[in-house]
User: Fold these one by one.
Assistant:
Number 1:
Amino acid sequence: MQRRHLLLGGSAALLATTLPGCGGGGADAGTADTMASTSDGLSSAAGVGRTTTTTGTTATAAKARVIVVGGGMAGATVAKYLRLWSGNTIDVTLVDRNARYTSNIMSSMVLTGQRTLASLGYGYGTLASQYGVKFVADEVLAIDPVNTTVTLRNGGVLKADRIVLAPGIAFDAVPGLSDPTRMPHAWQAGAQTTLLAQQLAAMPAGGTVALTIPATPYRCPPGPYERACLLADWLRQRKPGSKLLVLDANADIVTERDNFSRAFLGLHGQVIEYRPNAVIDHVDPAAMALYLADGSRVSANVVNLIPRQRAGALVATTGLATATGGRFVPVDVLSYACTVPGAQNVHVIGDASATTQPKAGHIANQEAKVCADAIVRLVSGGLPDTGPVTNSACFSTITMSQASWLTAGFQYDPVARAMAPVAAAGGASDGWSGDHFEDMLTWFKALMADSFA
Ligand SMILES: Cc1cc2nc3c(=O)[nH]c(=O)nc-3n(C[C@H](O)[C@H](O)[C@H](O)COP(=O)(O)OP(=O)(O)OC[C@H]3O[C@@H](n4cnc5c(N)ncnc54)[C@H](O)[C@@H]3O)c2cc1C
């Protein structure tokens, strides 16, 4: 009961700070710097290192053991709340290939020079020191869903009672793109984000940028549109006379249509040219050319090519990605247990799972809490809560200093056995403002603190 209240309370708190959206931006590097300063201390806190071959049972043989694969928005949150809500009785090991997480949220502002990648970094030290999560910095090469084991790149094998997979996304290969650095996606914050920022900075005034939007479902539905708006504002100020060609594989703007269409046609009408149904067939990186399925050809000085997406490579190779045309993992949203036969002790949360909810960091945080609550109940011989609710808030940068917002709430529908949108809990801002931009920074800080601190 208390956990349920905490879940609802956490949602309400995040909502109360500012409703909405899924977008990046924030010139407040100080906010993130504060967060980053709470990081690390891995070796002292971990207790499980690169040479580990088994984990979990040293202190209490009967302790339930959970391995979380992927320490992003979903994985960090589930690890924290498994410890918190079990009263520290569940042994939790969190594995990520990187010792620090870089937030995708706000990362489009690295492209405009408003933030640094370093300001978006989060360590796992607080999860270890405050909650007793054991962190392992290693890559997971394979999992065995039946025997619930995880094989690490270092050769170690971890064994648990349950596995939570939260590996995020992988990208489809783009025909012709032999050198991805020529047309970076920058859709997984990191080296490609830096590269795209450099390419934009080096572009001459009066140049052309092309930004491609993949077919749904993809990570952060408003994200490409907000990036387009942000870049349009930056181009107008920093590269006068430049154009931004938005090539959308979808038939129309997929979310927050009112605000984005107003921005594309009005505020950014002199910079943005929007083309729906623009499916990329193949590319010629040497010529910086894109060939579309309708036979047309487009070239640009800088190409931000965001490919179609699927669950992180690990789940695909394990054979669990059987939903959404083989792209994502089917789950029971009462517990996020995988519904592929034989994999019921593997839970999949965040962008890798196939649900009716958007692929977003805020929803990843919410799915993680539902999953943690369910696992705590299951390992004590109970059943998952039958009435979970989740919410998603997303802000979108419409200019370098103004934002809009979008929010959605979901409730379990026992007939459809899916999370159904709650009309009264959804909405979007009427336009954009500097106040919403400030709210976005508050929301971001609260979300990241809830996941990593
Ligand atoms: C530009 C941009 C802006 C965005 N803005 C917003 C926003 O405003 N609001 C919002 O809610 N969402 C936003 N999002 C979406 C949000 O970032 C994702 O939905 C969220 O990060 C998904 O969380 P996740 O845990 O599933 O994946 P991730 O956060 O990507 O975490 C996955 C983790 O798994 C690790 N991993 C993967 N495979 C392995 C392996 N084999 N072994 C070990 N570790 C592994 C990775 O290193 C990574 O740390 C945005 C995304 C982008 C790209």
Note: The first strand starts at residue 65 and ends at 69.
Number 2:
Amino acid sequence: MIQADKLNKKFKKWVVCGLVVGSSLVLSYNSFFKAKPQKDKEDTTTTITKLPTYSMDDIQKEKEKLVGYSMTDAFRYGVINSISDYVGKAPHLSDTISFSGDLNQMITYGYYQRIDGKKQVVITHINPDTISIPNLTPKAKKMIISFAKYHNADTKKGAIKAHEFWHQNTNPDTQNSNNFILSDITKRGVFEYNTTTEEFAKLCAHDEIASRINSLLFLREQYLKEGKTNIFYGDFSFYGKAIKQGKINPLSDDHKDIEQEQYFIVKSMLEKWENKHKYNYQDYAIKKLASHKPIPKGQESEYDKALDKIYTFIWDGKLVNLNYVSENILPDVKLTDVVKVAVKEKKQQEQKTELPPQAKALRKEGRN
Ligand SMILES: [Zn+2]
């Protein structure tokens, strides 16, 4: 049997070489050789599990699929290097809205929602309509044109995309990810993390604040390229002013300046939320609360983990977690009275459905 043994060794050597080559390409699956228990030294049998092998091309394709799935995942796998890069490459749908001069018209500039079974980012294009309303003055027509031009500008659209793609980043389309090769990608959206009912309502706020911050960081990238402070329009103009006044310096490499700038961003955006925006998102938070699930028994809240995920941004070629600023130095968001009432109702509803009849009876006794 010596001859057979020699052949066997040769075969094993070949297989091992094959595995070494293969394993450097395969990033996630369980693979191993199964050696049958050896009863006799002569009776050695090696069973080989057939392994899926992926070419560099396959892996590259999977990485590229992250563009349109999650901004930070795409960054970690090196397929994009900045917010602007992602905004330029990620797919989105376009919606066109006609504007004929009514300044009270409600315009949604962008949104992220499930359409035809897939979560998609939709960006609005404004079509200036100077025809359908008769007898418009030349001044009104001019206003319509300049309004559309202002909102359709690349910078403005880019900032809106940066906002919507951030919602995508915190809540990627996990149901359609179909990514079997890459192991280190986002598997759950933040609203699937374990949270109390209150924390869940607060996450709605944080998700919005962070999306606004991502718009600002997109504009900051344009500022670093072009040096123009007037890029910070509307709600973000405070930032351009702060640069001009020397309060912050985005060009500085000094870590104190960087920390100060990051603190200034989170603090200012939180204040804007508390003073103004949160009242416009009450209906959204109340609707979203319906999908909250209580924390399973024996498990803990993952609120802090969710905040880490929400506030980890791409900043000057690396990932930075700005949650430490919001968590330790600044107070957490405060829910509006209207949302507080909705949280209370949802909590009562959850307690009713959660407790088995016996526990309900005991609770009642306890109260009496
Ligand atoms: Zn939003």
Note: The chain has three domains: 2-53, 69-176, 190-352.
